[in-house]
Design goal:
single chain; mainly alpha; two-stranded antiparallel ribbon; about 10% strand; about 120 residues
């Protein structure tokens, strides 16, 4: 005979937030250790600008710029998709307000079925 638990605790957004904060803290700690263990100074040249940075900082900057290289176009694509979705929602709302059948009826009509009500 197995005992069933009396109270089951569901996962919440705050619980997920605490996991994210803990993970973020561990990553920051690892980055700090990486930077402190790589103090050797390196020469940096970029489009005519020259400077000296610790190796760990230079590599961290390169990684951050690489992330931005991916994140900026991804954010632009998300904005583009949201605008398209908004446009389609408005068109569907206008069709529903005018009394015409919406896209569900068009799809059902193509399959020879009635639209769900």
């Amino acid at each position: 005979m197995t005992k069933e638990p009396h109270h089951v605790i569901k996962r919440t957004r705050m619980g997920g937030l605490w996991i994210a904060i803990g993970s973020f803290a561990v990553v920051l700690l690892l980055l700090l250790v990486f930077i402190l263990e790589n103090p050797h100074r390196v020469d940096i040249a970029f489009f005519g600008a020259h400077g000296h940075l610790p190796l760990g900082v230079a590599m961290l900057m390169a990684a951050v710029l690489g992330v931005l290289l991916v994140a900026i176009p991804a954010a632009a694509r998300i904005v583009q998709l949201r605008a398209t979705a908004r446009k389609h929602r408005r068109a569907d709302a206008e069709l529903a307000a005018s009394g015409e059948a919406g896209p569900a009826a068009a799809h059902a009509g193509a399959e020879g079925q009635r639209a769900p009500r």
